[in-house]
Amino acid sequence: MKTYLDLAPKYLSGHKNKTRLTVLSVVMAVALVVGIFSMLDALVTFEKAQVLKSEGNYHILIRNPTQTEIDIIASRIDVENSGMLKDLGEGKINDEMCAMGYMDGNFAGNLNIVLAEGEAPKNDNEIMLEKWYLDQLALHIGDTVNIALSNGIADDYVISGVINDWGATKAASIPFVFVSKGTSEGLSAVTSQYFVLFKVGVNIQNTEREIAAGLNISADRVGYNEGLLALMLQTKNNRVLTFYLIGMVLFGLVLVTGIVMIYNTFNISVMDRVRQFGLLRCIGASKKQIRRIVRRESLIISLKAIPIGVLGGMFITFICSGILKIYNPYLFGDISIFSFSGIGIGAGVLTGLLTVLIASMLPAKKAAKVSPVNAVTGSESVKISGRQKQGVLTRLFPVEIAMGVNNAINKKRTLILMTSSIAISIILLLGFSVLVNPAFMGMKTDEPYTPDLTLTSDQGITSELSEKLSQIEGGEVLGKPTEHQIDLQLSGKNDEQTVNEVAAVIDETITLHDKRQLNAEADNAFMTIAVFIYGFVAVIALISILNMINTMNTSIVSRSKYLAMLRAVGMSDKQLNKMVLAQSITYSLTGCITGCVLGVVLQKELLDFLATDWSFPLYQIVGITVICIMTGTLSVISPLKKIKETVISETITSL
């Protein structure tokens, strides 16, 4: 040993069990922070993909623009792409109602108007239709259909291209017909929208104000892609900013959880070594040297634990991304499962490093202030109260259980740290569960009674038809059919065959609305978000349970000499089990009660803030309580077994 600082690695290697527990605590805290923040980064990536799919890739739109406005905006150096979408009103295709419109070809992809086959209409006698409508009427590219335009003029048009299905028009059973630019110029548009996509790095709010002021465009003519702007942090929408505030609170709690986890375990470990620090003071070590030794230990632990924690957090993200890629390949097919968040890794490293340093220095500072004689003899920690105690616990419980509860309650600092560690994890669980609420995400999801097919008729639907539909295998009539509407829900088996059977029993006076795609789009978006959020909850729950077990291990191992003394004076193994279990359950229930109370308050406040109904989370509370008690019970098994295997005389001799 060349320097006193070499005591740090020697102590850590000489007390492998304690060191392992401390390292594990840091690993779990870092993995929690890295995993949650990396999953948040992946969630933002998903949200952007979802917004681009549902709303389109644009930043602002101008309603009913003039040609001058279009020319000036398109010529700006900060505009990457722009295009016009015209609503040309209603028309008729083969005597059936249809919606008509025109879209600039250069911007069609930005609004998810994807050409599946053929080409966009160029000539005035060409049109483009959705795939579902062509399949329904057995039409193909090159076929001719009769179109009655919104101005009343009817003519034959050639199908030049096929676009992907739109859930909304398919559910309404009204096909959307895209015409050529020449045809659109001869019709009066009901409304027109000019979409603008700015270049990367542009301050969109300032640019929008500049455009509106320069062209004298009123505020009611400007629209925003709020979802995309929110993800770019360039929104001024108060509701979106509210969501960000809630998210910041929850993820701030994640950081606090990581800090408490590390501080709790490290504090127990360092405070257990007051006697060792006293011995060093007796042989001439200064207060500064004591602090430097502890700082060196914390650095060694950080260098071991933080890389493992980062890898653990990255593995959590890898698993979550893999599940999402398998669950929703359409949305996540192009997203790499090996993408990791630099912010998440940085947050984990900083949390681990800074917390270990702080957690080690505070108890070391206290140890350095203790008198060397008191530290060696332990007299500083032994305080005899002059007040006579009533012995309430011993009247209510057997002596060993009373001792366990008393040990937990009397050590206020340890009680606060243990309670905080458990409580903050429960608060996180209850807080994050709010995110699965569709109202928070601004999503619509189908209910169990949502129809997959709807039949409507202005001329009325007979009871005979309703009876025929109820007998079709794979379909169920929802509710009581009305004179003009029947709702059907499919079983999920051979749905296409069921739809064909339904179509076969209806006549031309009845319109079939296929809502399956619209329902699936809403469900996929919500379920993917739910996978993310429940992934957050699962990670928090798992690491919280492991942290609780690890902390109890550390607490019991640090008190092994005290427990050995109790065995030496006659306490049986059975009594020892009950005492330690009572102490563990006291910590667990105290943390559980505190966490549930504060977590329920947080959950209610968040939902009230969102103007969403709140109900008492009884099942969550019961589940959390059961898990806390089970974890508190299981956490003492391993350390107690090791203590019982130790010969009492060996432990007493080391005192």
TrEMBL record:
Keywords: Cell membrane, Membrane, Transmembrane, Transmembrane helix. The chain crosses the membrane at residues 21-40, 241-266, 299-324, 336-359, 415-436, 525-549, 580-602, 614-637. The keyword Lipid metabolism does not apply. One of its GO terms (cellular component) is plasma membrane. It comes from the Bacteria. It is a multi-pass membrane protein. GO terms for molecular function: transmembrane transporter activity. Residues 21-212 form the MacB-like periplasmic core domain. Its main location: membrane. It is found in: Cell membrane. Residues 249-372, 536-644 form the ABC3 transporter permease C-terminal domain. The keyword Cell membrane applies. Belongs to the ABC-4 integral membrane protein family. This is FtsX-like permease family protein. It comes from Acetobacterium paludosum. The lineage of its organism: Bacteria, Bacillati, Bacillota, Clostridia, Eubacteriales.
